[in-house]
């Protein structure tokens, strides 16, 4: 647990008693702070095991800071009542990541954000650092709450996946390496519009100046624009990255070949086509970002590429579950928007696509060129009718309704076509109509696949597609 004794004697309000909120409250209590913990949900208050205080009736003049759960609205669609009370009484509003940053200012920190790919990149950086013997803690938006991390000395590293929600709650985080992978429309209900969303993502660079490393994806216009803006400011050491084209002075992949041009002497260092867990251009960009980050932290080329080659992949991110009777079953349940699904759809041939759930703004209307390998779509959940309309005259589809039916129908069609192919769960939707989160949805898919009959082939090392 992170030592927060620098807050001894302070009174801290903690709102939102999920995993990170409970961890925050316990770390603050252990550090000697007085904690006023609350959640609008009574069940969460009970499950937390904490002594709770109704913040609606609390004395806000005695509160030194409000630590807010990232999911609680700051501004859109409407400021939460705790936010209004904090602003009314000039109480600082922060998140648990900010507390970690203040407690360990001198321990190296890597922060990763982006609409897509941040979980894979975060896990890959953590894997590389651990494989080379460096004490490393990995978490944030991915995995464990940051205040449950082990305290690390200055030769260790914290690797942090940072969502736009979390970045909204940081004010003073000094990252040794700050990474922005990409920006596409997402979470607009929370940020109001793309301007607000981009502003939140850009915050990852705000506290990291004075020559700190900024790694920026150049595969979308938002990244290119931000790179130009930061270059004009001259406050960062900029490293451009790309998954499919050369970027001078950076790290990039072309046809799957990872190229190091950090010293303006481009050299191919790894054939990413041989890494089964990093399939597709999007994962090549993730690998470029991770390589740039660890090289900036002092690792050699050899250390970086040897560790990348042993990356085991992540559950629910293009995870190869099984190959049965020549058909591959891939769990990409983490693809909760069209852009994320597009990345999987361009990674395989002969796809039997399972999609649907709670659609994001725009649905799948943006998917055009990415559908050329889809043989049939099996639509589930609330979005089935909307997606069927989007796919009309483009992709044959069935309204399967639920995941069990979709898996069975996809298997039967793939077998009847005799082409092998891939049954791909890449929903392009949130899961909340039928499952509490994408992990539960992905686990349900895996359970259904493992129950299928047929001859199974051995999986490649790492178990991901």
Short description:
This protein has helices at 19-30, 42-48, 81-88, 96-103, 118-131, 164-167, 188-191, 194-202, 221-233, 281-296, 301-308, 338-345, 384-391, 403-417, 438-450, and strands at residues 11-15, 34-38, 65-68, 92-94, 109-113, 136-140, 157-161, 177-180, 213-217, 237-242, 251-254, 257-260, 267-271, 319-324, 327-331, 351-356, 358-359, 374-380, 397-401, 422-425, 429-430. The protein contains 15 helices and 21 strands.
Keywords, separated by commas or semicolons:
alpha/beta, UDP-N-acetylmuramoyl-L-alanine:D-glutamate ligase, Protein-Tyrosine Phosphatase, Chain A, 3 domains, 9-stranded mixed sheet, 21 strands, globular
Residue fraction in strands: 15-25%
* CATH class descriptor name of the largest domain: Alpha Beta
Class from helix and strand fractions: alpha/beta
- Cα gyration radius (Å): 23 Å
Polypeptide structure, described:
The chain is an alpha/beta fold and 465 residues long. The protein folds into three domains: 5-94, 3-Layer(aba) Sandwich (Rossmann fold); 98-308, UDP-N-acetylmuramoyl-L-alanine:D-glutamate ligase; 319-450, Protein-Tyrosine Phosphatase, Chain A, CATH 3.90.190. It contains 15 helices and 21 strands. It has helices at 19-30, 42-48, 81-88, 96-103, 118-131, 164-167, 188-191, 194-202, 221-233, 281-296, 301-308, 338-345, 384-391, 403-417, 438-450, and strands spanning 11-15, 34-38, 65-68, 92-94, 109-113, 136-140, 157-161, 177-180, 213-217, 237-242, 251-254, 257-260, 267-271, 319-324, 327-331, 351-356, 358-359, 374-380, 397-401, 422-425, 429-430. The strands form four sheets. The protein has a nine-stranded mixed sheet, with helices on both faces. Strand 18 (374-380), helix 13 and strand 19 (397-401) form a beta-alpha-beta unit. Helix 10 (281-296) runs antiparallel to helix 11. The longest helix is centred in the middle third of the chain and has 16 residues, at 281-296. It is globular and about 70 Å long.
């Amino acid at each position: 647990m992170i030592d927060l004794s620098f807050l001894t004697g302070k009174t801290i309000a903690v709102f939102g008693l999920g995993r990170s909120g409970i961890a925050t409250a316990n770390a603050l209590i252990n550090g000697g702070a007085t904690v006023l913990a609350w959640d609008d949900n009574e069940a969460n208050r009970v499950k937390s095991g904490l002594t709770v205080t109704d913040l609606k009736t609390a004395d806000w003049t005695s509160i030194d800071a409000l630590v807010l759960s990232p999911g609680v609205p700051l501004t859109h669609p409407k400021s939460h009542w705790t936010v209004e009370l904090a602003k009314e009484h000039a109480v600082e509003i922060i998140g648990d990541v900010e507390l970690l940053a203040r407690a360990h200012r001198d321990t190296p920190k890597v922060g990763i954000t982006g609409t897509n790919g941040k979980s894979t990149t975060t896990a890959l950086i953590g894997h590389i650092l651990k494989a080379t013997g460096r004490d490393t803690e990995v978490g944030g938006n991915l995995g464990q709450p940051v205040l449950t991390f082990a305290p690390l000395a200055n030769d260790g590293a914290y690797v942090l996946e940072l969502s736009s929600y979390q970045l909204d709650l940081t004010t003073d985080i000094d990252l040794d390496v700050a990474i922005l992978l990409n920006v596409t429309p997402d979470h607009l209900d929370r940020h109001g519009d793309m301007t607000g969303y981009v502003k939140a993502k850009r915050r990852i660079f705000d506290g990291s100046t004075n020559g700190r490393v900024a790694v920026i994806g150049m595969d979308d216009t938002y990244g290119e624009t931000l790179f130009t803006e930061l270059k004009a400011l001259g406050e960062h050491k900029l490293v451009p990255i790309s998954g499919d084209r050369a970027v001078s002075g950076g790290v990039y992949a072309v046809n799957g070949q990872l190229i190091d041009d950090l010293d303006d002497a481009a050299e191919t260092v790894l054939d990413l086509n041989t890494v089964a867990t990093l399939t597709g251009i999007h994962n090549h960009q993730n690998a470029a970002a991770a390589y740039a980050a660890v090289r900036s932290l002092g690792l050699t080329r050899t250390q970086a590429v040897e560790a990348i080659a042993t990356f085991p992949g992540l559950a629910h991110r293009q995870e190869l579950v099984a190959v049965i009777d020549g058909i591959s079953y891939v769990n990409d349940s983490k693809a909760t928007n069209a852009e994320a699904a597009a990345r999987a759809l361009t990674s395989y041939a002969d796809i039997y696509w399972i999609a649907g759930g709670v659609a994001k703004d725009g649905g799948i209307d943006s998917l055009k060129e990415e559908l050329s390998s889809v043989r049939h779509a099996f639509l589930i959940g609330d979005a089935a009718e909307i997606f069927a309309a989007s796919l009309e005259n483009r992709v044959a589809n069935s309204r399967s309704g639920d995941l069990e039916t979709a898996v069975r129908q996809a298997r039967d069609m793939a077998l009847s076509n005799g082409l092998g192919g891939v049954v791909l769960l890449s929903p392009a939707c949130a899961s909340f109509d039928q499952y509490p989160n994408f992990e539960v949805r992905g686990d349900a898919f895996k359970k259904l696949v493992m129950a299928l009959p047929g001859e199974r082939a051995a999986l490649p090392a790492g178990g991901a597609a």
